Amino acid sequence: MEYKCDLCQKIISGGVLPYSKHVEEHIIELIKIKHPKWVEKDGLCRQCYEYFKKELSGNK
Ligand SMILES: [Zn+2]
After folding, report:
1. What whole-number distance in Å separates Cα of residue 18 and Cα of residue 2?
2. How far is the CA of 11 from the centre of ligand 1 (A)?
3. Taking the domains of the chain in order of start, what are their residue ranges?
């Protein structure tokens, strides 16, 4: 099954990380600030998840 990450516009197949309970609330908040049109239903890929996770810990 193919999945398009709305944040980086990449098509990912296999090993995707659509939005799930693993994604912390703070990460979702940060993504919404940078991507106002994004909603958690859209999901995100692992790369974006890691990116925002890093961003979050670096911006304290
Ligand atoms: Zn992505």
Report:
1. 11
2. 9
3. 2-58
